[in-house]
Amino acid sequence: MTGPTQPFSFKVLTINTHKGFTAFNRRFILPELRDAVRTVGADIVCLQEVLGAHEVHPLHVENWPDTTHYEFLADTMWSDYAYGRNAVYPEGHHGNAVLSRYPIAHYENRDVSVAGGEKRGLLYCRIVPPALGASIHVLCVHLGLREAHRQAQLTMLADWVNALPVDEPVVVAGDFNDWRQKASRPLRESAGLEEIFTRARGRPARTFPVSLPLLRLDRIYVKNANASSPTALPLRGWRHLSDHAPLSAEIHL
User: Fold this and answer.
1) E-strand spans in the chain?
2) Fewest CB atoms within 10 A around its CB: which of 177, 206, 228, 232?
């Protein structure tokens, strides 16, 4: 497919929502998180650790929404959304979600769990902005805690990206748990994905823990696209809303 005849840009945000609670589940802050996410003005939002359903919390948590958490976060600002259920337990389930101002033409959640590890998934969305007239491929990622598991999941991610149309734009965002910084090189060499903070500043952004970010766990990768204004959002307004610093950027096609 040929690229757009006119320049097209959109803003991406990624954040780990910690199931709508502060650290150690002390307080439910999903309404405050929604307000903060709205202020960014992102066109596409990639969310990790989104609670899809829970049977117990609504019984005793004040301000628990009547809708799913991803619908509550989307509200009236993002017309389309997709959810991929990863971890399932007796009380409910959580996973990744994508919110989009543009139509999501197709989505699917692929299980990339590795035996002996946590349940993990890649949530894929094919998004078609009317003004663009072409597809944007978005993958929301939350990888495992063990290095061997992450390497296997990176291979699955690269295989998926390589199966997409060769000249269409791809955005991969989320929590890679890559504290040893071993993800970017194989993703670049095997799938042509470039990490936007590394491209701009030489290294991924520090995002965890949000109170004093030391580890570079969260990423935004692109293929067949450029990026500007990569930003780890100011911590003062976000410190109590997630244990990860949110990342945003303008993507240009």
Assistant:
1) 9-16, 44-54, 80-89, 92-100, 104-111, 121-127, 136-142, 170-175, 194-195, 218-223, 226-232, 247-252
2) 228
Average pLDDT over residues 239-248: 86
* Rounded distance between C-alpha atoms, residue 209 and residue 213, angstroms: 5
- pLDDT tens digits for 113-161? 998 888 999 999 999 999 998 999 999 999 999 999 999 999 999 999 9
Q: Quick check: is 2 in a domain?
A: no
Residue ranges making up the domain that contains 17? 9-252
Residue type, 113: S
At residue 156, the pLDDT reads 96
Alpha-carbon torsion angle 19, 24, 28, 31, nearest 10: -60
Q: Considering the domain boundaries, does residue 243 fall inside one?
A: yes
140 with 47: CB under 8 angstroms? Answer: yes
Backbone angles phi, psi at 7, to 5 degrees: -60, 145
| Domain containing residue 40: CATH number | 3.60.10.10
Q: Which ranges constitute the DSSP H helices of the chain?
A: 30-40, 57-60, 69-74, 147-163, 184-191, 196-201
Question: What's the structural domain count of the chain?
Answer: 1
Count of other CB atoms within 10 angstroms of residue 179: 14
Terminal alpha carbon distance of the chain:
14
User: pTM of the predicted model, to two decimals?
Assistant: 0.93
The pLDDT tens digits for 54-64 are 988 988 888 88
> Is residue 3 situated within a structural domain?
no
Tokens representing residue 158 in the block: 């690269």
